[in-house]
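Good morning C.,

I know you're traveling, so I'll keep this short. The sequence:
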Amino acid sequence: DQIRIETIKPLKTTINNNVKFDEDKRYIVANINNTRAVFDKIKGVFSSICCDNKEYFVAPMQYNIWRAPTDNDNGIKEQWLRAGYNRAFTKMYSCKIIDSCIVVKFSMVSNANRPIMDIVAEYSFDEDGRLHGNIKCIRNKEMVFLPRFGIRLFLDYHMENATYTGYGAGESYIDKCQNSYFGKFSATADEMFTDYIIPQENGARYGVEKLLITGEKKSMSFLAEKPYSFNLSHYTQEELFKKGHNFELNKSNYTILCFDYFNSGIGSGSCCTTLDSKYQLDDETFEFNFYLKVK
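The tokens, ready to paste straight into the viewer:
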């Protein structure tokens, strides 16, 4: 057994008003210290982050609500697919710079479906050059609960080393962690991959308070207001969903990081039982508050 004697400390947000912003019709470029970040106003995400002339993103970041369904998601998978969660994208309404913050309003939508959720996201930088994200969400309660919510980053292939403080050492989920313990762990993306015969969501780590991703003389660290979940892999969720057998899988040319506010539980749907509501991302409103630092 474990007894926690210290809890996660609240994040202190101090906005740096000395950030230099350059803006055109498509992009906002923020320059602070040795960091340059490019924000795509059409997609509502950062498409590039450079530090000391080193690029960290292979592709633009994404807001992520999908995962490759597990065997236990069979009872809910069809509802997720009908809701369009696997093909969701952002529909932008506005993007402005307000008091040194990039403020965007948009919806997560999919073709031929009702809007999935409305989002207001604010991005700013502190004195140390850390990116602070505050994402406020209002979900369409008439739709089925979400598989997950977070951001997905596409990093250089060699940024595959994770050091984290959370539940390990193996994969852990909100309802699948009784064989885990809280501590500090290190592993590579390949070591965290769980090789199921039928490819599916795997390898997440639950209850994480600190995360550091390193490789190729680059590092990226994450903190959040509340414990979060993450997954580091060389396989995209699309690849895991598309292939029927593990021997058919093809690795990506990059490392994929899913940094999640919440990843719904695994449950036991393969035995025809419904995932307990306390393990579902079914809240009508929620807020994801985090820091990202590159160096």
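Safe travels,
E.
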